[in-house]
Amino acid sequence: MAMGIAIGSDQGAAGEYNGRMTLFVVLSCMMAAMGGVIFGYDIGISGGVTSMEPFLKKFFPEVNTKMKEDTKISNYCKFDSQLLTSFTSSLYVAGLIASFFASSVTKAFGRKPSILIGGAAFLAGAALGGAALNVYMLICGRVLLGVGVGFANQSVPLYLSEMAPPRYRGAINNGFQFSVGIGALSANLINYGTQKIKGGWGWRISLAMAAVPALILTLGALFLPETPNSLIQQNTDPQTAKSMLQRIRGTQDVQAELDDLIKASEISKNIKHPFKKIIQKKYRPQLVMAIAIPFLQQVTGINVIAFYAPLVFRTMGIGESASLMSSVVTGVVGTGSTFISMLIVDKLGRRVLLLVGGIQMLASQVMIGVVLATQLGDHGGVSEGYAVLVLVLICVYVAGFGWSWGPLGWLIPSEIFPLEIRSAGQSINVAVNFLFTFVVAQTFLAMLCHFKSGIFFFFGGWVAVMTVFVYLFLPETKNVPMEQMGRVWREHWFWKRVVGEEYDASKMEE
Question: Residue 83 above 50 pLDDT?
């Protein structure tokens, strides 16, 4: 996950902590980031199997009939089926609910048990999906996958942010999205291969292969170390937490960081109801970001590509095999751009990548919309030249997402919360993400039918809004230790008006 990261000294990172990037941290984070692989694999696999004719014939025959035989229906409406979208979106309803249970587990028992539960639930869901005999077994398997993803997405980004030295936190945490990309790319390649299997049972291999990364995560979680933050939060002997901190930082001189962790933990222990605490005025910036960032990440329109790319290409009249190969191409681009983000996020900062990525996504979406509006009618397809142009534009869009809103949508919320509300804040982040993933997944095919090419202008409008939001309201957080993150809000032109009075009052009380 983090092999592209330079291993070097982190003396005085952000002017505070000693330490360096150790092999122990890299290996631990690589194992934890398998949680991203299972998430990405599911995203990629669902879009692929729903474009396979044997899968549609068995579980969604009315969709297959519309696609093959109905010559009157619009290109944009061939896949409009609420049952079909329920197959994709049921996972995110389960993940939404599971994320709130995951919050309690993560806070009370640590990050490691949540990762273990996530891997085990995903493993069971993969087995049930691969063996499905009817649509009910299929959706029950999706629900178990959702429980697994809910726990993994709640705990893994926290684990990565807490294990990483502040100087490399962006690169390490972006490894989660890089792992999502690896999982999605693997799924696309497997779909392309299994689609060619004679007998029409290749989709079973696609669904069941999700068990491989889930098994690695489940077994690997047994050997993962717990984070020092979590050890202190669970009332573990401070010397144990200090020893772990010394091990992961590669130095004996960790007292400054340990003191900050203990201080944050003492504040955290006085918080009995973190979900009530997080709505207080002094946490208003973090609460706004916990809601706004995952919402905006989903309305970029990335799920148009992630879930339904093969269906979008089939809409343009491209064949089944070619549409799956097109998804492989976009998967390679997305994974590569996320890797680039890992290398530069701690140098250029979060804001620059979000602004550049937003402009890039907006431009490509507008051009895709124009091409489809002028070249693709309700019947027939597009020429090979225009199909290639759309594929190139989608790659430009995916690259923009891959080095901006993809990884940073997980990184920023995981690093901005103080320890006392960290589990609650991350749960809100994951829940909002799953809620709007569900909404987009459940409504996209119907929106495609009604909006037609205008769907890309719709999502492009949201990309414009989110780019302005970042420019105005998101402060830079690179190289700032997590336990000192409060100062970025107190120094921001807008948020200092909200939190400044609260901070001054608390200092006077002290």
Answer: yes
